[in-house]
Automatic annotation (TrEMBL):
<dbReference type="Pfam" id="PF04101">
    <property type="entry name" value="Glyco_tran_28_C"/>
</dbReference>
<keyword id="KW-0472">Membrane</keyword>
<dbReference type="GO" id="GO:0008360">
    <property type="term" value="P:regulation of cell shape"/>
</dbReference>
<comment type="similarity">
    <text>Belongs to the glycosyltransferase 28 family. MurG subfamily.</text>
</comment>
<dbReference type="InterPro" id="IPR007235">
    <property type="entry name" value="Glyco_trans_28_C"/>
</dbReference>
<keyword id="KW-0131">Cell cycle</keyword>
<dbReference type="GO" id="GO:0009252">
    <property type="term" value="P:peptidoglycan biosynthetic process"/>
</dbReference>
<dbReference type="GO" id="GO:0051991">
    <property type="term" value="F:UDP-N-acetyl-D-glucosamine:N-acetylmuramoyl-L-alanyl-D-glutamyl-meso-2,6-diaminopimelyl-D-alanyl-D-alanine-diphosphoundecaprenol 4-beta-N-acetylglucosaminlytransferase activity"/>
</dbReference>
<keyword id="KW-0808">Transferase</keyword>
<feature type="domain" description="Glycosyl transferase family 28 C-terminal">
    <location>
        <begin position="204"/>
        <end position="368"/>
    </location>
</feature>
<keyword id="KW-0328">Glycosyltransferase</keyword>
<dbReference type="GO" id="GO:0071555">
    <property type="term" value="P:cell wall organization"/>
</dbReference>
<dbReference type="GO" id="GO:0050511">
    <property type="term" value="F:undecaprenyldiphospho-muramoylpentapeptide beta-N-acetylglucosaminyltransferase activity"/>
</dbReference>
<dbReference type="Pfam" id="PF03033">
    <property type="entry name" value="Glyco_transf_28"/>
</dbReference>
<comment type="pathway">
    <text>Cell wall biogenesis; peptidoglycan biosynthesis.</text>
</comment>
<feature type="binding site">
    <location>
        <position position="309"/>
    </location>
    <ligand>
        <name>UDP-N-acetyl-alpha-D-glucosamine</name>
    </ligand>
</feature>
<feature type="binding site">
    <location>
        <begin position="22"/>
        <end position="24"/>
    </location>
    <ligand>
        <name>UDP-N-acetyl-alpha-D-glucosamine</name>
    </ligand>
</feature>
Amino acid sequence: MKSADHGKKDRPLAVVIAGGGTGGHLFPAISLAEAFQDKAPGVRILFVNTGNAFETKTLSREGFSFQKIPARGLKGKGLAGRFKTLMILPRGIFRSISILRAFRPDLVVGVGGYSSGPAGLAAKFLGIPLALHEQNILPGIANRFLSLFAARVYVSFDDTRLSSGKAFLPAINPARVLVTGNPIRRRMRKGIGHGKKNGGAFRVLILGGSQGARAINEAVMDALGLFKEDESVFLTHQTGEKDAAEVAAAYRRSQTPGRVRAFFHDMDRRYAEADLILCRAGAGTVSEIAAMGKAAVFVPFPFAADNHQVLNAMSMKEKGAAEIIFQDDLTGPRIYEMIKSYQSDRRPLLEMAKKAGETGRPEAADRIVEDCLRLTGRL
């Protein structure tokens, strides 16, 4: 069934942004929504996602409307889990069709994550133009399939794998692919160029993504005794909700100078003040670090789908923009030695930061939205 409404110019633009689940998908989606608001006054925006606690809390705080659909992933679920996923898929598609018919969007933008698949299929069924954004070098399952009929596919890296192996299916037309970079939040873009003031302690920002990272938290706690009362180093540590109390207690016991939070909402400030960042290698984090021009040591999550975090980190390392410590090699002493080494000789750090800045694409959200406006005949 075709939608009779898309393409009309006698009403405000309406956009559905589908996907999310974690910060790696949700934050670029929010960045796109912000750019739509900037470039299409009066735009109506609706997020479609699974409605998990992180999505609900984040979107409510940012003031965006959302609808939830039943959806779950295929990766790592086992035979029984995959069967359940396939049973849920039709419900997700029918719910998405109902939402799209009611909202009447001019465009659906899929950003990856469990909910993007059903919503993208619903858009195809209703004849609503579909655009996709892929954050990682190696695309996820939903985007691989949806790319077959998407009007446009936006990718984050020059070396995103579009036509071989486990990446996008070979049938995709390269003319529909644009390398734009990964959208970063408006607040983050405003922080670009506002670096740390000279002097003061050597500041290390420790991140595990929006969900935290147990392995990083454990290794840092193991290192804290080595930093005891060392006021020349200051650690800013995002732990995730699960480990926040335990990690904060470890800092207090060791008397290590630092700031510990489950989650920081002022990441522009945290990035700006950091000399070095120790973090996972999700596409959102990598893109923000590049845009901010910061030196990073990545600890790729070893169980990420299709090993995409290793690929993301390797792409930066090959450009001279980052270093990598694999999780099996991550220990307290290794972290301590690495930090003290960069503190004593900052030349490699400055070179990494320079190379990172050269790879950054802070204008990604604007580029994507401008192209979306052309797709919908609004530009």
